[in-house]
Design goal:
mainly alpha, EspC
């Protein structure tokens, strides 16, 4: 095929900013959840299981640490996505304003 294809992209900055806000709230909720999950420390179970449950307690401690790490990483990922989305929304608004100003300036030059 000859030529290049131009695909139209339509971005609604207000929708992107709303998505960024929601993603930011999700990040905060996950951070709170991580703190609550950390409170379920494996040490609390040690007395309940005693020496017989030492193997289980060790396995639970490892799983608990992995779980907390995954929650923290997910919270950080949502925070990054929220920040990037908010910055993208601002960039689209800035670019649109600059383009509109350039079009207005060209229109003024043509009328002169």
């Amino acid at each position: 095929m000859k030529g290049a294809f131009m695909h139209r992209i339509s971005v609604h900055p207000s929708g992107l900013a709303a998505s960024a806000a929601i993603t930011g709230r999700l990040s905060g909720d996950l951070a709170d959840l991580t703190a609550r999950a950390a409170a379920a420390a494996p040490e609390l179970l040690a007395s309940a299981f005693g020496p017989i449950g030492a193997d289980f307690s060790a396995a639970y401690a490892a799983a608990h640490a992995t779980h907390l790490g995954a929650l923290a990483e997910l919270s950080a990922a949502f925070a990054g996505i929220g920040t990037a989305s908010d910055e993208a929304a601002s960039a689209f608004v800035t670019q649109d304003a600059a383009y509109a100003a350039a079009v207005r300036a060209t229109g003024t030059e043509l009328r002169a």
